[in-house]
Amino acid sequence: MKSDRLLSILLLLQTRGTVPAPELAERLEVSVRTIYRDVDALSAAGVPVYAERGRHGGITLLPGYRTDVTGLTADESRALFVLAAQGAHAALGLDAAIGSALRKVMAALPAPHRPAAELTSRRILVDASRWTRGPGSGLPLDHLGTLQDAVFADRRVRVSYVHSRSEGVRDYTLDPYGLVSKAGVWYLVADRDGEPRLFRADRVRSASLTEEAVRRRPGVELADVWERLKQWVERRTGGIEVTARVRRDRYGRFLRLHGGVVTEVVAEDRGAEDGRAEGVEGGGPRAGEGTGEWVTVRLVVEEERAARALLAFSDAVEVLAPPEIREELARAAAAVSALYEGPH
Q1: Interatomic CA distance for residues 277 and 269, integer angstroms
Q2: 127-182 pLDDT, tens per residue?
Q3: Which of 48, 74, 78 lies closest to 63, judged by CA?
């Protein structure tokens, strides 16, 4: 639409000052002649825009003229640029739209707020997809604010940290790239001794900024380090894949407790006599279908004993595969039965 094109020209000129007509034409996918007609239309509407000829010429907006997004505070401007990870908008077919929208907002922001907004887009990333196995959370995030200060101040940070398989506390001096929210769990992405590392914010026991400037590797951004670390974690934490069926009337509670490790809804029983067979051998996710008694899901557990948590649902959850998990649950159930059948 012409109105959208005119607005895009105005915002690009506000950001750049002078832009060659051929470049505007290429970016907006129109002819150079159309760009000049649009410039005439803007000028007729009272916008102080004109064409400068010569080698370094182009379409120019009179210095000092701009259309501000009024009323936005510095924090509100930063909030607009907390970006979802690559792929989140692609799933909705909105990758190009989000990029265009953010360019327009950036151009229209009051000049003092632009650097903070641009820095936020490079230092904060939100990735809503789950790991192969979902890490639980719930621990307090007492030091997330300090980690955020280190990210935005470009300072090194000292942390005391508890690793997942260790009771001891380790002390590190880190060079942060930024923070990532992964399926509701916050992580600090940082270099430790020049090597990329991932630190869960809820395992940080203390954090303090140093006086030293951050020492990031040249040309490396948060998204680059995050992608590398994410692939490493997903390769390392395979776990055991379990197929189970859940009674529909307990399915909501099951998801509240175990949704973090559910990787797929295999099928929903639509009233079949033998719900065990449906969907276990294949077929795509069909969440939301059916009115039968069972929902079949796949989930990942760290080890065989971890599957015992499913016994809390009694006969409302049945593991279908693999056999070793069924045997582990049978042994646990037999031990509980023997305990209660014996004399008090």
Answers
A1: 10
A2: 665 555 444 444 557 788 899 899 989 999 999 998 765 557 889 999 999 998 87
A3: 48
For residue 304, what are the contacts with CB-CB under 8 A and spacing of at least 6?
Answer: 240, 324, 325, 328
What's the mean pLDDT in 27-33? Answer: 88
Evaluate whether 272 touches 292 at the Cβ level (below 8 Å).
yes
Q: Write the DSSP string, 231-248.
A: HHHHHH---EEEEEEEEG
| Among 192, 193, 195, CA closest to 228 | 195
Which residue(s) pair with 19 in the sheet?
A: 59
Q: Which residues pair with 299 in a beta bridge?
A: 242, 262
Looking up tokens 């590190």 gives 172
Element (H, E) at 18: strand 18-19
Residue 38 DSSP SS3: helix
Are β-strands 240-247 and 195-200 bridged in parallel, bridged antiparallel, or unpaired? unpaired
- 246: its two tokens: 């859940």
Between CA 43 and CA 64 the distance in angstroms is 16
Neighbour tally for 240: CB within 10 Å: 16
Q: What tens digit of pLDDT does each residue of 89-102 get?
A: 654 466 677 767 77
Return the closest-CA partner of residue 256 out of 138, 139, 126. 138
- Cβ burial, residue 21 (10 Å; 0-12/13-18/19+): buried
Cis peptide before 63 (omega within 30 of 0): no
